[in-house]
Amino acid sequence: MGRLIRWMPPRSAATVPNVFAIALNEGAELRSLEPWQAEEFLAHIDRARENVDPWVPWASRSTDLESARATLQRYADLAARDAGRLYGIWLDGTLVGGTMFVAFDAAAGKCEIGCWLEPAGQGRGLITKAAEHLIDWVVRTRGIHRVEWITRPDNTASSNVARRLGMRLDGVLREDYLHQGTRHSSEVWSLLAPEWLARG
């Protein structure tokens, strides 16, 4: 005789505890950002667009629910191929930013980490803490040897995070990409696995 299973009505996303979350500090957590969260993601990008667009190319392309879902689906597809991942940062239950593996190549032992943050999440060290979790995971669990951080020279907040993570500036790629009709240069920062492990 089978067991009796009692049906329970579904709870809203706000009332369901997230079992895949990493605490960053009081009230803030890091967790996966997936296509089913497109509506929340779009509302966040609308708040963050002015601050994020100069640094994160997909911010200007995520302008409605369909394009926001497409951005999240692109990273879901990358994750399925073990070629990239996207994580959100929630502060007091509101999505305020995130970190991502822009590129991820386990065979080559190399990855690139990126980030973004809306004003409400700034000044709390959230990006640094989130990036530390990502670096520790890729080095200790995935065996990645080189972690890169690429930013524009005028994005001093991003460069400061790279420094706090113990990265070194490898150099500047002069006018290496085009954004909204203007060519921009890129700083390339890097951290090697032995350097990270030596930090303890």
UniProtKB/TrEMBL annotation:
CDD domains: NAT_SF (cd04301). Pfam families: Acetyltransf_3. Residues 28-194 form the N-acetyltransferase domain. It comes from the Bacteria. InterPro entries: Acyl_CoA_acyltransferase, GNAT_dom, Ribosomal_N-acetyltransferase. This is GNAT family protein. It comes from Kribbella sancticallisti.
